[in-house]
DNA sequence: CTTAACAGGTCAACGGTGTTGTCATAAGGT
DNA sequence: ACCTTATGACAACACCGTTGACCTGTTAAG
C-alpha cells in the first residue's frame, strides 16, 4: 500500500463521494468538531464520522494515518481558536486569568481532543505563538527570567492538566456522570459525625463544591502566589529568592 | 436475570474456574493493575482480563456491574496504597506538601492506572478516609469550613491532574518522549530574537525547565497562596473574605 | 447422609469499534 | 483521447462490552 496519506498540498484530484461530498482535511476536522459538540465525545468514531460526512469510513485514512492523527489536528485547531479570540489588556494578572479560563473552556468543549493534546509538545506555529505571548506577559510584568519560566510552566501545565481532567469527566457516559454528583450527596453527606467529623462538618460545602471544577479556584491561588512573589521581588530586586534574572 | 452482582460479604460458594482459579474482587483488581502496568492502559479489557485470570470474560460481571465499577475499585486501591505510607507531623503545610508529592509519585509509579482513575469519585473506603484526613489537616490549621473545602478541592484535583498529565508523558513510547525534549532544544532554543524576543531571552531556562514536571512548583505556589490566605484570616477572623466559617 | 436450591462459571450471540488489503473509476496531465 | 494514478468503496479481520440462557458443584437444610 506504500503511502496511504498524501500531504494536503499535493492533493489535486478532488473526487466526490458517492453521496456527493468533496472531502478535505478541513472538512473532516470541522465535521468531527461538530459531531463532538452535538452528540458528545463518545459519538466520535471513524465510522460515525464517515457516516456524518457521507463517505466510507476507510476514506478518512487517506487524510489521517490513524485516529490519533485526527485528534491532534483537532487539538491544533483548538489552540488557534483560543489564541485568536484572546485580547491582552496589559494587566498581567487578569490577562493570564482570562487566558487560563479560555484554554480550560476550549478543552471542555472538545473533551477527547483535550485529553490527547494535553501532554504533547507540538512545536507548531500556534503553540510557539502562545509560549512567546505568555512569557512576554510575565517578563513585562517584571518577573526575572528564571522566575518567568517557572511560573509560565506551572501556569500552562495547570491549564492543560485541569482541562484534561475536567474533560475526562464530561466525556463519561451520562449515567456515570450523574452517579458522581450523587456520591457526594448520598455517601459523603450521610457519614456520621462521630466517625468522620470533618466531612460531617463541611458536608454542605462538599455537596455544593465538589461536583464543580476547581480550576478557577486553583488558578486564582496560583496567580495570587505569583503576585505575592512579584511584590517581594520588586521590594528587594537583588535578593528576592535563590536566583535572580542574571543567574 | 434478577441481580447478577452479589455483595462480597454474601459470597459463600467459592467455585473454581475451569482453569482452576478461585475468583475474588481482590484478585481481579490485583490482576487488572498488573495488566495495566505490564501492557499499558489500553491492554485492559474485560476479555483480556478474563484471559489473564483464567476465566470467562462474562464471569467478571458477577463481581462488577460493568467496566466502570472495576475502574473505581482499581482507583480506590491506589488511593489506599498512597495513604498507607503517609505520616502527618502536625505542620499542615509540610504535611500537605508531603502528601501531594506522594500522590504524584504514586501516580507516576502506576502511569496507566493513574490516567484512568484521576477523574473518578469512587465513594469507596480509602477515598473517604483520604477526604476526612485532608479536611482535618486544613480545619485544624484554622481554615474556616468553606475555605477548607475550596482549598481541599483545588489541592486534590491539582495533584490528580498533574499526576495524570505527567503519567501520560511517561507512558509515551520512548522515542516520542525523547522527541518532546528535543523540541525545546531544536525548535524553541533556535528561534531568532527579533521575531521571538521573550523565548530567545529565556531559552536557556526553557530547555532546562520544560522537560521536567512542574508539579512541585505548582504545589508550592498553591500552598503559599493558602498560607497567605490563612495569615489574612487569622489577622481579621470575621472579615477575611466574602465568607466565614459560619456562613 | 441425601437432596434440592442456587451461586457462580460458561457459552454463544449482538452490535459496536479501528484498521487494512484489494479493487474500481474518474480526474488530470499529456 | 489516453494513460496514470489518486482516491473513494467494499469486505473482511480482530477486537471490544454486555447479556440471556444454560449447566454444575457447593452448601445448607432435613
From TrEMBL, chains A, B:
Species, as recorded: Streptomyces longisporus
Name of protein: TetR/AcrR family transcriptional regulator
Q: Which residues form the HTH tetR-type domain?
A: 22-82
Alphabetized UniProt keyword annotations? DNA-binding, Transcription, Transcription regulation
* Keyword DNA-binding set for record: yes
Q: Does the keyword Transcription apply?
A: yes
Q: Entry's Pfam families?
A: TetR_C_1 (PF02909), TetR_N (PF00440)
The record places the DNA-binding region at 45-64
* Superkingdom in the source lineage: Bacteria
Amino acid at each position: 500500500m506504500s503511502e496511504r496519506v498524501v500531504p494536503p498540498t499535493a492533493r489535486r484530484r478532488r473526487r466526490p463521494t458517492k453521496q456527493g461530498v468533496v472531502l478535505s482535511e478541513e472538512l473532516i476536522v470541522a465535521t468531527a468538531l461538530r459531531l463532538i459538540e452535538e452528540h458528545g465525545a463518545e459519538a466520535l468514531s471513524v465510522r460515525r464520522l464517515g457516516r456524518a460526512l457521507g463517505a466510507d469510513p476507510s476514506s478518512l485514512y487517506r487524510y489521517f494515518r490513524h485516529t490519533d492523527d485526527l485528534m491532534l489536528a483537532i487539538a491544533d485547531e483548538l489552540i488557534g481558536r483560543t489564541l485568536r479570540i484572546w485580547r491582552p489588556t496589559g494587566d498581567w494578572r487578569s490577562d493570564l486569568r482570562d487566558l487560563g479560563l479560555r484554554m480550560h473552556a476550549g478543552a471542555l468543549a472538545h473533551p477527547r481532543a483535550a485529553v490527547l493534546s494535553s501532554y504533547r509538545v507540538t512545536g507548531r506555529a500556534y503553540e510557539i505563538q502562545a509560549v512567546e505571548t505568555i512569557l512576554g506577559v510575565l517578563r513585562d510584568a517584571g518577573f526575572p527570567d528564571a522566575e518567568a519560566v517557572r511560573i509560565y510552566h506551572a501556569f500552562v501545565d495547570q491549564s492543560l492538566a485541569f482541562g484534561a481532567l475536567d474533560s475526562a469527566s464530561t466525556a463519561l457516559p451520562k449515567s456515570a456522570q450523574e452517579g458522581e454528583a450523587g456520591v457526594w450527596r448520598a455517601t459523603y453527606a450521610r457519614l456520621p459525625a462521630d466517625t468522620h467529623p470533618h466531612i460531617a462538618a463541611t458536608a454542605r460545602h462538599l455537596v455544593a463544591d465538589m461536583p464543580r471544577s476547581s480550576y478557577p479556584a486553583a488558578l486564582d491561588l496560583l496567580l495570587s502566589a505569583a503576585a505575592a512573589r512579584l511584590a517581594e521581588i520588586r521590594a528587594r530586586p537583588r535578593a528576592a529568592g535563590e536566583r535572580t534574572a542574571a543567574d
